[in-house]
Write a structure and sequence with these properties.
The protein is α+β, with helices and mostly antiparallel strands. 30% of the residues lie in helices and 8% in strands. Helix 1 (11-21) links the parallel strand 1 and strand 2 (28-31). 0% of the residues are buried.
């Protein structure tokens, strides 16, 4: 699932990105209700896959983000919830 909460201004871009994969296993769920911090994790408890990735629309993962998370969580003896902090960055200036 790709969930879009609270009427994100990125909703149409997210729909287009998911649609570009043309994969029926990926579903976009949209709601105007903002589930806030704990709600998104509550929804993820319904998932039956081995891994769940929760990213806010203000978090921009780096190139190796997923591979680093998968490596870390698959170290023998480790289980848990991994995450990162998202920051809303200012738009780049035209002179940059």
């Amino acid at each position: 699932w790709v969930c879009v909460f609270g009427g994100s201004p990125l909703a149409s871009s997210i729909e287009a990105a998911v649609g570009a994969y043309n994969d029926s296993r990926i579903t976009v769920l949209q709601t105007e209700h903002n589930f806030k911090y704990y709600g998104r994790f509550q929804i993820s408890l319904s998932v039956t896959t081995k891994y769940v990735l929760v990213i806010d629309d203000d978090m921009i993962p780096g190139k190796d983000y997923l591979s680093i998370l998968l490596h870390t969580i698959n170290v023998p003896g480790r289980r848990g919830l991994l995450g990162s902090i998202g920051w809303l960055l200012p738009r780049p200036q035209s002179n940059m």
